Amino acid sequence: MTTQTTAPLSPSAPVEGAPKGFIGLPAPLGRALATGGSALAVVATFLAWTWTSEYPGDLTVYGYPGGLQVLVLIGGLLSVLLGLASYGLWGLGRLFPGSAESALKLAVLGTFATAWYTVVDISAELGGVVNLEPGAYLVALATLVALVGVLALPFTWPEPEPIDPEDTSWEQFKHRWLQNWAVVKASVAAKSPGPAPQRPPFVDILVIIAVMAVGLIVFTYGIGTEYDQQFIGFLIIVGFGFGALAKAGLVARVSAITARHRTLTMISAFVAAALFPFTQSDDQYATIGVYILIFATVALGLNIVVGLAGLLDLGYVAFLGVGAYTSALVSGSPSSPLHVQWPFWASALLGAVVAMIFGVLIGAPTLRLRGDYLAIVTLGFGEIFRITVLNMDGTSGPDVTNGSNGISSIPNLDILGFDFGQEHTILGFTLARFANYFLLMLLITLIVVVVFRRSSDSRIGRAWIAIREDETAALAMGINGFRVKLIAFALGACLAGLAGSVQAHVTYTVTPEQYQFAHVVPPNSAFLLAAVVLGGMGTISGPLVGAALLYLIPAKLQFLGNYQLLAFGLALVLLMRFRPEGLIPNRRRQLEFHEETEAPAVLTKAGA
Fold first, then answer.
1. 550-571 b/e with 16+ CB inside 10 Å = b?
2. What is the Cα 558 distance to its own chain's centre?
3. Which residues contact 310 (CB under 8 A, 6 or more apart)?
4. 3-state DSSP assignment of residue 430
5. How confident is the model over 153-167, as pLDDT tens digits?
6. Measuring CA to CA, which residue among 597, 585, 584 is closest to residue 545?
7. Which pLDDT band, with edges at 50, 70 and 90, does 599 fall under?
8. 495, 512, 570, 510: which is closest to 313 by C-alpha?
9. Cβ of 395: how many Cβ atoms within 10 Å?
10. Longest dimension (CA), the chain
11. Any stretches that span the bilayer, and where are they (predicted)?
12. 472: exposed, middle or buried (C-beta count within 10 Å: 0-12, 13-18, 19+)?
């Protein structure tokens, strides 16, 4: 009898399915290159990158980073921290409970992209690499070394699926592309952080305050970017940095803390937002801030209709126009045919009530429709409103809205002797006109947030969600679908009208062109719907973040000229392709798109 024996595998033999990196370097060497290269990039930010101050940001100073150097410095420091966390350094493991190596890859990639973008742009703007100083060469080399290091970090490769030889060349190409994309996703896959340890309540409060302070700093820096290159670098660092913190588990931990203290988080967020005008030396960026708040408030109202009730409304901006025109007509404007001047509280309530009445009148005969049919009807209502106010000029119709000229010279608000059009000094800080309106609009936003939160947690809110998930099943369970949908439509219209009553005084003039379905400048119905979908339907913070991005990014991308909307549209397409649930998704909706995501132990009533 012959006995066959199998020789044992040698320790150096590769094991099938064993983790490996993109580059065949040992994992310890790759980790050292990533951490050391990032540290060297931090040092390079304190050196001059060019010899002339003609390049924006003045990158000629030694020992004091400026402009894009600051962004590379932030990315480098984050990469160093994550690199040290990947070694299991005590303390950093509790700060980054997720996958430090996956987070390190994103942080290094963002730092590399920002540094090389700056170096290439300096060479292009100033006429060649001869204009680079040693700091630029050092940061380019350091970030390249760090990138090589993270590409060597091992990960578990997905099992390749065989290609059907009968497939067409296009199908085979698509198969290979999907397989490569699966490898890329696996390279940055991260484990879910475990349950957070019990901490004293004051520690959670300090964490929330720190998060709001960081958010205020990031927003203030982004809105105050002075030139195009700086804003592009800001987007790169913020995007990759947020992704790195999410992979590291820090975002999940902070989200768990804010979920335990929802009221405190909301108060802290609005306090941080109220401090924004006090961080500005003039009224330039407060102007952008107040328009963002108007846009965000209307988007949050639309979120009730679309995000909670699941009704596709393509003419929602008309309710904003109803509130604005109603308030303008009773504002005391010389262009108003009514020639009356009501106090703000009365005009705001009137604008909200009239918008709600329009919502009921439009919703009553149309809300029995579903899906695309309802969308077409609401789109028609939006256009009917714009054409109607355009024709009320005394020639084509009654003289009410002054036609295409609109209602102009709307006076500034004066509430209890506080003139919003004048500068005021508070605690040594000077607040100009738009800063005053920013604080007023912030109060309106707070009211809308409270209404949204209380509504979503109520019996009506649960009925909205049931209608959104399956209207037929909800009707079978005894929910009056028509009445519930009409309440959502009326409430959303009311909140939009309330925001419109403030918008009329901020813009001085109300014209029909401001309330189109699609336009370059938000708010319009297309941008409002995009803000809800982009930010995350059914959440409070999602539409607020989505509206801020949709207003701020087009304003900062004007250097692209005629290609601005093309670049913006491509960015939205890519985001919806790779993150269809939105930036800050509803938890239930996230589970619908990502079945492999671990389900939370408890879902809120709205599914967050």
1. bbbbbbbbeeeeeebeeebeee
2. 19
3. 464, 467, 468, 469, 471
4. strand
5. 998 888 888 887 777
6. 584
7. very low
8. 495
9. 8
10. 113
11. 32-51, 71-92, 104-124, 136-157, 202-224, 230-251, 285-306, 311-330, 342-361, 373-392, 434-452, 486-506, 526-553, 560-578
12. exposed
CA 280 vs CA 274, 277, 288, 429, 469: distances in Å: 12, 5, 12, 9, 44
User: 515: closest CA among 387, 351, 355?
Assistant: 387
Yes or no: say if 86 and 100 are a contact pair by the CB < 8 Å rule: yes
Amino acid residing at 465: I
Give the number of other CB atoms < 10 A from CB of residue 572: 15
- Residue 50 pairs in a beta bridge with 132
DSSP 86-125: HTT-TTHHHH--S-HHHHHHHHHHHHHHHHHHHHHHHHHH
Half-sphere exposure of 584 (CA within 13 A, CB side): 17
Q: Decide: 192 and 598 in contact? Cβ < 8 Å.
A: yes
Residue 419 DSSP symbol: E
Closest CA to 324 of 491, 512, 488: 512
Cα–Cα distance, 192 to 250 (Å, whole number): 11
Q: In terms of Cα–Cα distance, which of 390, 222, 211 is closest to 292?
A: 222
Instruction: Give 429's strand partners.
Output: 426
Q: Is the peptide bond before 523 cis (omega within 30 degrees of 0)?
A: yes
The string of DSSP letters for 491-545 reads HHHHHHHHHHHHHHHHHS-B-GGGG-SS-SSSPSHHHHHHHHHHH-TT-SHHHHH
> Which residue is associated with the tokens 């987007």?
235
Neighbours of 134 (CB within 10 A): 11
Candidate from 357-361, 508-512, 600-604 with smallest mean pLDDT: 600-604
- What type of residue sits at position 299? A
Q: Residue-wise over 351-361: b if at least 16 C-beta within 10 A, else e? A: bbebbbebbee
> Is pLDDT above 50 for 467?
yes
Which tens digits make up the pLDDT trace of 112-149? 999 999 999 999 988 888 889 899 999 999 999 999 99
pLDDT band for 601, please (50, 70, 90 cuts).
Answer: very low
Inter-residue contact 279 to 223 (CB < 8 Å) = no
Q: Compute how many other C-beta atoms are within 10 angstroms of the C-beta atom of residue 155.
A: 18
Rounded to 5°, the CA angle 524-547-278 comes to 120
Give the residue among 281, 276, 260 at the shortest CA–CA distance from 212.
276
- Going by the DSSP 8-state scheme, the letter that residue 410 receives in this structure is P
Label residue 4 by pLDDT band (50, 70, 90): very low
Residue 310: which of 467, 517, 520 has the closest Cα? Answer: 467
